[in-house]
Amino acid sequence: MRTYDFSPLYRSAIGFDRLAQLFDDAQRTDSSYPPYNIELVSDDKYRITMAVAGFERSEIEVITEGDALKISGRKERDEAPRNFLHHGIASRDFEHSFQLAEHVHIVGAKLDNGLLNIELAREIPEALKPRRILIDDSKESVQKLVA
């Protein structure tokens, strides 16, 4: 794995420490289990699909806190020991964290056929959306502004 040195960024840029921390965290995270997809469904809609075969709804937790989404699975271990000849289906506990961009929120979550689907959407508040300003060339509107 390649590592990056962000110290030059810290020396010359103010307020970008959070971005550098995101890159640093992404390099350290083991994100291989359980496998997942992140899909762009449409312009401002996203879907995270996570393969959670063997987990019940009650064993999976989806939490948002600030701009972070945390998905975790905790297997209930009250089963008697089993004698596997081949054990290829993992069923270990997991925890995944995703950093959400501004104005991205969870629309819903569904568990279907061993796949956890989390729907996300970016909804920019009206006050932050671009507005077209009409240019009025009448003398009356100019006089109103001067007075």
TrEMBL record:
Residue stretches making up the SHSP domain: 27-138
Species the sequence originates in: Herminiimonas aquatilis
PANTHER family associated with the record: PTHR47062, SMALL HEAT SHOCK PROTEIN IBPA
Short name of any one Pfam family annotated for the protein: HSP20
Entries under InterPro entries matching the protein: A-crystallin/Hsp20_dom (IPR002068), ACD_IbpA/B (IPR037913), HSP20-like_chaperone (IPR008978)
SUPFAM superfamilies: HSP20-like chaperones
Similarity comment text for this entry: Belongs to the small heat shock protein (HSP20) family.
Protein name in the entry: Hsp20 family protein
Keywords (A to Z) from UniProt: Stress response
